[in-house]
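Entry for the shared binder. Reason: the reviewer on the internal report wants the predicted structure included alongside the sequence.
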Amino acid sequence: MQSIHLKTTVGADGVLRVQLPPEYQNRELEAIVILELLPKGELDPPPQASGWQPGFFKEVVGAWVGEPLVRDD
């Protein structure tokens, strides 16, 4: 099981949109949603033109827990 933590806004249509990494494409999964109302203005800034989700790099930097990575010359 993997958890993804994000802060987002529910659209005027009442739909919560969650963009998942490519490895989840065309896969079945079970999702658990826990909602917590945030004070207004507490969201990260919107995604930049790069398309990365807000806070993505803050969450993944240093998260590797496998064998040490080696970069060849």
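Summary line for the report: The mean pLDDT is 80.
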